[in-house]
# Entry
Amino acid sequence: MKNLLTSGYLLRLLLLVFVFILFLQFIVDPDFGWHLVMGKKLVESGVILRADQLSWTMPGYEWGNSYFLYQAFLALLYNYFGYYCLVVVFALISTLAVFLLIREVDLLKFVAIALGVRLALSNLAVRPHNLSFLFFAILVVLLEKRFFTKRWHILFWFAFFTLWANVHRAFVVGIGVFAFYLTVDYLYKKSFSQKTKIGLPIFCVLGALAGSFITPFSLDLWKSGVAGDFLTIENLQYIAEWQSVVLFFENNIYFFVTGIIFIYIFLTKAKKLEPTWFLIAAFLFSIGFVSSNFVFFWCVLFIFISSRYFTISTKSRLARGVLIILGFGFIVYVSYSTYVHIRKFVGSNMEELLAKSGYPVEAVKYMRANSINSNLLGQYNWGGFLLWQYPEAKVFIDGRMASWKTPEGKSILGVYMDLENKKCEWLKRFNVKTLLVSKNFNLSCFVNFREVYRDDTAKVLVKKEGEL
# Structure
């Protein structure tokens, strides 16, 4: 027992249990509904949808779905085991990523790793991001082990990125980091006159890139599933995950603290920390200031580096005491907030989970009972919920569609935001007849609508008869 305690195995086990509990996120993500609907269609029919069948604004629009394997996995688990099982499975996936990343665990590293996990929760739940969290962790660990020096490694990376590209579009970041690491590593080793070979690493990157095209959508995946989102201005302007992490309270605190720890590690362990890892970590941290969408990549590198290099050597009892108190206080706070979260959701049925997640459950019940579904404009973050819970009503927009371009060259998200921001000329193009929106939605463009339902979450309006 003494050896178990002194070796750190017990602390590692406690950390992983703690991390697993943190990853139990029961809030239903806005994109969960459309992912589930797409997955069910694939599982039931065996047909991969290439053209839109779920909206009334852009029927037949073709797009590259970079999530189709994730969606099939999601649908199968949900159909057989339910949502709570999904929460547990996705928590296990994320915990496995952390397990792969950590090398050493002591009290200080325990707190640092927990900080990284808590920050990663800004991206993770029951989402494809959890799978990318694991894929990126595997990539980082294998790069550390120099898994690019044999011919069969080329085939491995080809298969690895083929799988990743059919699960989540974050594979693009993985390829970029892979290529950057091998380039800097080669230049760094060469500058120190170490024996290096560039041929196999180049073919490993080319294999990874080639694997990303082995999808049912080929170039369309890169065109609409990747480039479309990065190049759509409205996407970058309005969608929360494309905004800077500093705008979101609490997450920004964890973000800055992890940044301070990283700077401290660099200043104190610069000789031990390879410059390649420093440059990648610094870039991923910096990009969080631009978009919170990339924070979980930073968290992977932060956990990886912290578990290897984060130590504080001090003879001051006061300093040690302060560190212990701060670390213990953080663990207590996160534990309590996690307990509150779990207590709020556990024991609820699916309808209750949706209501607690902020979805218009009662409003949709009213609409269903009264067959209100004609030309529906639903709030953007409710699009996936509507596809799932009210399939009779095709949507104006949902999370798949943000970058989709209308024949006029405007993104459908841009059209939606124009209507919310009092730019009403699009009403001539889209004959909206029904609204399902929150009570704070701007109705300046919808003066010819009358309210037929209202509750604390949503209101329903229908177009007055005879109005254009």
User: Anything to note?
Assistant: The chain has a mean pLDDT of 90. Residues 2-30+63-333 form one domain. The longest strand covers residues 449-454.
